[in-house]
Amino acid sequence: MNVLKKLLLAAFAAFSFINPALAFDPSTYQDQQTQTAPYQYQKPDENQLEEHRHYRNVDGRTIHSPAHTRNEQAPSGATAKCGDGTFSFSQHHRGTCSRHGGVVSWL
After folding, report:
1. pLDDT, tens only, 9-41
2. Is residue 12, in this structure, part of any structural domain at all?
């Protein structure tokens, strides 16, 4: 098994050398989780919100957790409306409104 693994690695290395366009270049790879946000985070007006929790996102930024508003209108900085009526301030689509009924609409 070890010999077969070495042969496969050698064949891949040789093929990559022959055709560099097909070689994996880690400098050009972007993980969806760590891509920069398509917009800047805008802190919501806490006076408009019922809940006041926060979380740290995959970029290490502190973001307001999904929250209900006092007037049921989208607050400043909201990016999505969740199934349970809360508004999300998420900077990434992945995971937005999880545990809140999923995304009803993007704002």
Report:
1. 676 666 555 555 544 444 444 444 444 445 567
2. no
Burial, 7: exposed, middle or buried (Cβ in 10 Å; 0-12, 13-18, 19+)?
exposed
Per residue in 44-91, pLDDT (tens digit) is 889 899 999 999 988 899 999 999 999 999 999 999 999 999 999 999
Q: What type of residue is 66?
A: P
3-state secondary structure at position 35: coil
Asked if residue 24 belongs to a domain, the reply is no
The pair of structure tokens assigned to 48 is: 């408009």
Specify the number of domains making up the chain. Answer: 1
Q: How far apart are CA 77 and CA 107, in angstroms?
A: 9
Range of the domain at 69: 44-107
Q: Tokens 């007037």 identify what position?
A: 71
CB 107, CB 78: distance < 8 Å: yes
Question: How are strands ordered across the β-sheet holding 103-106?
Answer: 87-88, 80-82, 103-106
